Amino acid sequence: MEKKVVFRKENLNLGNFPFRNISLTREERVVDLVNRLTLDEVILQLTRGGVRDNGPAPAIDRLGINRYNWNTECLRGYAMNGDATCFPQPIGLAATFDQPLIKKMAHVIAVEARAKHNNFTKHGNFGDHTGLSCFSPVINIMRHPLWGRNQETYGEDPVLTSLFARAYVTGLQGDEIYLPATAVCKHFVAYAGPENIPTSRFGFSANVSDHDIGATFYKAFRECVHSGALGVMCSYNAINGIPSCANPMLENTLRRKFNFNGYIVSDENALENIDIFFNYTKSKMETAAVALNAG
């Protein structure tokens, strides 16, 4: 049975809100909407309503805001919830060295994502892989042969990975004022194994020199940011002993050096790992504070 999206009667005049006025700039509309949110509403949006693992952020009925699911994968197609074009794995795509082709592929993904999202919303489906915030591309550098996600990367070359990152981001997001979908570059940073031997990816610390992290691991993320990506995902691992999602490099490097002004999302359960696997914090409350302050 289909679920219809219905708003309460008192919200039928929502068009009067400035954030719904399409004659205003995108920035003006966003500022108006954010300023109308209560602190509790912001917290519920950040934590997806307190649901465990995946689930939609709750609706804000008084503003006519629907539920929204952030857990959406688009790496090689919008194909994890119903039919869609499914492209080859990125490691195979990288072997083509064809940046225009990757850009065209990402555009197709964006068109299909928008069409399917509209249909999901129409029928009240806000489950996994129904949103437009694509957790893609994977721009980690393939360094460890036992890592279980090597096939999702563009290989071991930071330059090629950077070029493909730009092609994917610009193809997915396009150049219109309102984007068909948004790219979330992942996983920041130095996240490429091991999978579980000799240690788990959830508790692994990548001990990386300043030179290596700059020359090898930052390059593709810098390109992602400069290509206009609206999101970045922090990773499970630690970098030199500090968990990625609590690491000052999110603020100092990603935001200040690269001028990233989008949103940062944690990998699934990565925040819990900060105290469970790394013992970096002593409580969930401290973990949340450390992550927010990090960027």
Structural class: alpha/beta
Strand-residue fraction?
A: 5-15%
Number of domains: 2
Which CATH architecture of the largest domain would you pick? Alpha-Beta Barrel
Secondary-structure element string: HHHHEHEEHEEEHEHH
Helix run count? 9
In which range does the helix fraction lie?
Answer: 25-40%
Low-confidence runs: 1-10
C-alpha-based Rg, rounded? 19 Å
The CATH class designation of the largest domain is Alpha Beta
Average pLDDT over all residues: 92
Task: Report the end-to-end length measured between terminal Cα atoms.
Answer: 42 Å
Largest sheet at a glance?
4 strands, parallel
Q: What oligomeric state do the depicted chains represent?
A: single chain
User: Count of DSSP E strands?
Assistant: 7
What is the CATH T-level topology of the largest domain?
A: TIM Barrel
Tell me, what's the shape?
Answer: globular
Strand order of the largest sheet: 1-2-4-7
Domain Glycoside hydrolase family 3 N-terminal: 70-295
GO biological process, one term: xylan catabolic process
Organism: Ciona savignyi
Pfam family, one: Glyco_hydro_3
